[in-house]
Amino acid sequence: MSYFKVVIKPAAQFLFLLLLVTASPGHSQVRSDSASLWSRIIQLENRIFADFPETFAVANSVLKETEQADCTRCLGRALMMVGKFYWANGQYEEGLKYFRKSIAISQELKDYDTWSKATDLVANTYYYQAYYDSAEYYFQKAYSIAEESGDINGMILILHNTSLMYHRKGDFKRTIEFIFKGEKLKDKFPGSEHHVESLGAMGPFMIDSIYYKEKIKDEIKNLQHYKSISDSMAIYYSYRNLAKSYRQLLDHKRAARYFIKACNAMNGMGLIPEWDMVAKDYSDANMKDSAFYYHYLAKGDIGRVTQPNAVYTLELLGDTHLHFNQFDSALFYYDSALSMNYRMNNRITFTGIHRQLVRVHTILGNYNEAEYHLTVGMKLAKEVALIH
Asked: Can you give the C-alpha Rg of the chain in angstroms?
């Protein structure tokens, strides 16, 4: 899934405040109200991983308030924010409607930050449904907007998201190309925000490189800095980056420990912890009791998270039951996850679950069902990717 931090440059901030000032006697109050509204919208953008039903209701309420306010720029941002909630919840068509409205407003106002971020979210919407041509087009567009405004953090994030798309598609050459485009930018601008991903399908290409070992060194330095300035969100990202780096290096116990630290950081910010990530690494480390302990912590939050996150909880439970030879339970969780994914059209996950169902049904002697999932999975693989 993608995260965003707003970057308001001093000049842009000054222009924003200047636009709010009018000749009317009440302009100070208008300026104050609009600045307060903008701040609330920005804060909500990163709350998609809080209690989702509760926070989504707040987001819609803020949008309604924004529609009545005298702040067009706030409206463009609020539309993107609510669209992001729909996108995060797997409601892709609804999200696109809001993103397009946001893009129309932000493009007209030359609000480059909102414009590029909304465009990047359009790209991610298509990517999650495995509509790669459309995703590629909008990632390129988002990058050009961020580049025009000199938004380095935005450019790095878009390159990161683009690399994930190519990895999912199975185009490893392009994946590596975009990873290292991002690396070059990060080297030019130390301290810029970034995200590390464990690229499982590319293990043979990446495991022998020094990429993840260098990431670990960098993140340990970053973590010390973020702790010194008490930046809770940056601390969370650093722990997560460290965990994903150790996962790629197959040091699953250490990866799990850093994911626990990341989860504790999320708890401290009032977000729903990603206990599934801890469980996955303990499962890969063959630590059965620890794996199921954290799986069921995650399952306890299933009614408070987005639909894709709930599905991921079910899918990973299936993986762990399969790993420990509990085949009937694996079948139950895979069937549940697949059904929810089809309702969302979350196509990038279809092939992998069908493949796992082939394995489970074959082990259980359900050969007709295994053949069905093989046929459907292979057909989808041609459209989505054969490797996932």
From this structure: 22
